[in-house]
C-alpha cells in the first residue's frame, strides 16, 4: 500500500504536466477544430527559455520559489508570443482550407522548429542539463517519501488549471472563446473579433505548454530539441482520452496518463509508452468522444 501511494504521488506530478500540455491541444481544437501537431514543441521552447533566463541572469545559482515562478511566467510569456506568431504565419492563411492542410502545416512547423533549434549554435543537438530552480526538501509521512518540488508542481498545476477554467467560463474573453468555438461566422456577426480570440487561445495554449516544460525540466533535467515530440504525443493521447475540446477532460486525461505511466514503469518501463496507446484504443472503442467529451454533430 505504501508503494502504491508513493507511485500515485509521482503519477500525479507527471500527470499535472501532461494535463497542462493537453489543455493547449484541447483549446486549439475547440476553437478552430485543428490538431496542432507542433504544440509539443512549445514545451521545448518554454524549457529552453527558462534555461537561458536562469543561465544568463542568475548564472545557474539556486533561486527561491518566488523568483522561480517569475522565471517560469516569463518563459511562458515569451513562448506565448511565439505561439501567436506561428498561428499568424503558418495557420491563419489555411484557416478556410481543408483541415488536413492545417495538420500538414503543423507537422511542417514542428519539423522546422526542431531542426532550426538544432542549427542554432548556442542550442545545438547536444542535450543540456537544466538547473535546479529551487532547493528540494524531502519529508516523510510514515514510510512514504514526499518531495517539496513535486508537491509544489502538483499544487501550482491545479491552481493554474482552476484559474484557466474560471477564465474560460466566467470572463468576457472566455465567453467569446466559447462562442467562436460554436460558430465563427455567427460570432463575427455578433461583433466578436475572431482573429483576436484565436490569437489569445494560441497565446494561452503555448504559455501553458511552456509552464509544463519548465515543470518537466525541473523534475527531469535533460533538455533536447526533440523532447516536445514524445511528450506532445502523450499529452495528445491524454486530451483524446479525456475528451478533446473539453478542458476538464484534458485535466482528467493528463492525470490518468501520468498515473498509468508511472504505475506501468514501476513494473516494466519499456511497456509504459505502449500501454498508453492500448488504453487510448480501449477508451475510443467504449466511448469514442472521450471520457468527458460530447458527441460532435457535423453540419451539412
Defining key terms:
globular, mainly alpha, 72% helix, two-stranded antiparallel sheet, 300 residues, 4% strand
Offer a concise description of the structure.
The protein is mainly α and 300 residues long. The protein is built from eleven helices and four strands; from the N terminus they run H-H-H-H-E-E-E-H-H-H-H-E-H-H-H. Helix 1 (2-32) runs antiparallel to helix 8 (194-219) and helix 9 (227-242) runs parallel beside helix 11.
Distance between the termini: 54 Å
Number of strands: 4
User: How many DSSP helices?
Assistant: 11
Output the helix-strand order: HHHHEEEHHHHEHHH
Helix- and strand-based class? Answer: mainly alpha
Widest β-sheet, arrangement of strands: 1-4
**Radius of gyration from the alpha-carbon trace, in angstroms:** 19 Å
Helix content: over 70%
Integer average pLDDT? 87
Indicate the proportion of strand residues: under 5%
| Main sheet record | 2 strands, antiparallel
Low-confidence stretches: none
Shape verdict: globular
